[in-house]
Every structure is written in C-alpha cells, then in structure tokens.
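[agent] plan:
  1. take the single chain provided in the ticket
  2. run structure prediction with default settings
  3. attach structure tokens to the ticket
  4. add a short note for the reviewer (M.T.)
[agent] executing step 1
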Amino acid sequence: MSSTETITNYLARRASEVNESLDKLLPPAEVHPQQLHRAMRYSVMAGGKRIRPALVLTSGEALGANTAELMPAACAIEMIHTYSLIHDDLPAMDNDDLRRGRPTCHKAFGEAVAILAGDALLTLSFEVLASTTLNADRRIRVIQEFSVAAGSKYGMIGGQMADIENEGKTVSASVLERIHREKTGALIAASAAVGAIIAGAQDDDTERLRGYGQRIGLAFQIADDILDVTSTSEQLGKTPGKDQAANKATYPAIYGIQASHARARQLVDEAVETVSTLGRNVSLLQEIARFIVARTS
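[agent] step 2 finished; step 3 output follows
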C-alpha cells in the first residue's frame, strides 16, 4: 500500500486481483454442467470484501512470499467461504433471500443446484491447493490448515453446529466465544497462518499470525453481530435482524451494543500488538485489523 492509498482502496485492489484469478480457476459457465457452473460463478463473483484472501496475500507478502505463489491459496479460501455462505443461506439453515445484495444461490437456481454448487466449490478449493507449485511439505501443511479450519472438530462446521444447537438458549460467555471462534474465526485465523506457511516462516511467526487472525476473526463476528442489529439490508447486502429473529447467541444479545463494541476494539488492539513483534513491515496487517471493526457492511 502506498503512502496515499487508504486501507479501503488497498482491499479493493487486492479483491480485484483475487477476482481475476478466481475467474480463471472457476469452470467456464458454458462448460457442462452449465447450470451448476453458472451457480458457482454467480455466488463467487457476487462481490464481497475478500478479507480472507487479502489476509493470505498480506501476511505472506509481509514474510517475503510473492503474490503468484500465494494467490492459489487466496482463491481457495474464498471458494471455501463462498460454499459456506451458499449452504448457510439454505432454508434448512438461515433461510435467507439476500446475499451480497442479490438473491441467494438457492433463490436464483433452486435448492438442489445450490447444494451442489457449494459442494463443488469446496471440492474445487482442494483441487486448487493440491495443484500448486509449492513444495510438497508446504502444500500438505496448507491443505491441512484449511481442512481443520473448515471442519467439525475445531472449525467452521463445528461452530455452525454449536450455533444451531444453542438457538433459543441462554449461553455462557465461553460458549458464545467458542461458537464465534469456530464459526467465523477459524477460517480467518487459517488465512493469516497459511500466508506465513507459504512464505516458509518460522513456527513462532506462523503462530503469531495465527493468534492475530484468531483475534480479528472474533472481532469480525462481533462486528457482524452488531451490524445485524444496527444496519439496513441495503448496507449489509443481506437481511438484517435474522439473528434476533432466530434467537441466536450473539454478543449484542448478551452484552449489549456498547460492551460488544468495546470487546471488538480490545481484540483489535491485541491483534495489532501481536503482529508488532514480527519485526517486519506489518502496518498493512494492523490496518486490516482496524478496518474489521470500522466497516459498515
């Protein structure tokens, strides 16, 4: 990022680079089965901030990796994220009509196609990771990192299951934090760690970046919870108030808006401090952390 480039412009520029690579990696819409490939493209190319890919690129570049070797992992994490959104929006889950300002995948293509589009994106993400030119050790570590972060034991799917199980219940602070750390934080933490792995970083630097990602991942979900209460559908690009309607466990529901803001800011301060010890040019990572809680959508 140049001295005159804002973090918003930086993220927009990285998103544009990621979109260009995603367009090349996704199956063309005219290739059989056309409807499935159109649905995959519809969801992936619908926009979004591309925070997770930006973290892969920014953390890896801060530790000396080049963009070309980082980009496949950046695209793979966006495919995994988009698959999760497609499935999350389904009637059996959150039953949402809007995503990124347009009809959700199942509204545009039907439930069966949406399920398959999500499945296909998850599968394609690991094909992309397995096909990189990284040495075998780093390639396996990256695949393992994303697999665990997306999985049921410590990752996104486990967090989603815990979220479902605790709907309508009064949950403790520790249960609420675990849901958020797994459901949202795991993929964000893995994105930062994967950049370090691809750069060949020492284990302590990788763990510092993972700790940074864990903190901003939790802050990101707290900010999402707050926006669900305070924003409009035009600002969010999705239906607000869904968490409250479903009586889900959220920070605002338990602590209120003010305390939730304070907790998010505390996590960002911790994240900024965590990467400051890397001793490298980490200002971009720190700016991304601050953006997490300053965003309005």
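[agent] step 4 note for reviewer: The CA atoms of residues 244 and 253 lie 8 Å apart.
[agent] ticket updated
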